[in-house]
Amino acid sequence: MLRALPGLFALALALSACDGSGESAPAPGPAPGTIPVVASTDVYGALVQAVGGDRVAVTSLIDDPAADPHSYEAPPAAAAAVARARLVVVNGGGYDDFAERLAPGPDAAVIDVVALSGLSAPAGGEFNEHVWYSLPTMKKLAGQIAADLGTADPAGAPQFTTNADAFGARIDGLVARVDALEAAHSGTRIAVTEPVPLYLTDAAGLVDATPPEFSEAVEEDADPPAAVVAATLDLFRADPVRVLLVNAQTRTAVTDQVEQTARAAGVPVVEVGETLPAGTDDYVEWISGQLDLLTKALDRP
């Protein structure tokens, strides 16, 4: 699942030598003896760190929980970081085009996580590119990271494999928790503001009752039609859904209205996201915390 990204953006590399005032501003390099790695978001950066340990120097292009990767524009320094990286990890699927447009060096390995996942769109539906909520994909990604780091640093290959196996075991623990949710709550109706967490909730057997027109419009930064908003608000009335999952990074007046309606109806709200929350640098702990909240919401009387 490696592919070389097109080298069509040499201009970005030239711009990386200047700061906003036009002055020369060399980007800092990785620590000596480490493998330079670039990830499009800190979610993938956390996986690389978990596998690579102290033998990697990871740059996550987006590490701000307030940032929206869909609309992010990479600064010139990002091009320099990608150009010197030995491994680049991008989500793919049109999600982080800003990273895919940057040109890595000729010896760099590139992992497109969507391509690696093997996931596809449901019949008659659109592909969900938020693959970091697919636990099997994250386990597969750890193995691919270990293989690529081992190529760049053969002496570290045994450590990378050991770390990837340990990470995979932690993912297996999360999968067991999701399986327990499925056993207890399969068929339970939920609502979402965006399709971000659906790989996780689908694996738990939960049924997304949100009108597709609503979550798709929010994802595309558009206002859903009034009738669609009304139908979404109805999910919290006569026969309310069990929980609302909110993408904390793309709040709008409409999603705030939905969240307020849910809370007023006594429906719990669980936050999901596209990057790690402030103060968190561990993927498994992040997902585990969301599963804690989801389990509490589903188990309530």
From TrEMBL:
It is found in: Cell envelope. Its main location: other. Keywords: Metal-binding, Signal, Transport. The lineage of its organism: Bacteria, Bacillati, Actinomycetota, Actinomycetes, Pseudonocardiales. InterPro entries: Bact_metal-bind_prot9 (IPR050492), ZnuA-like (IPR006127). It comes from Pseudonocardia charpentierae. Residues 1-19 form the signal peptide. It comes from the Bacteria. This is Zinc ABC transporter substrate-binding protein.
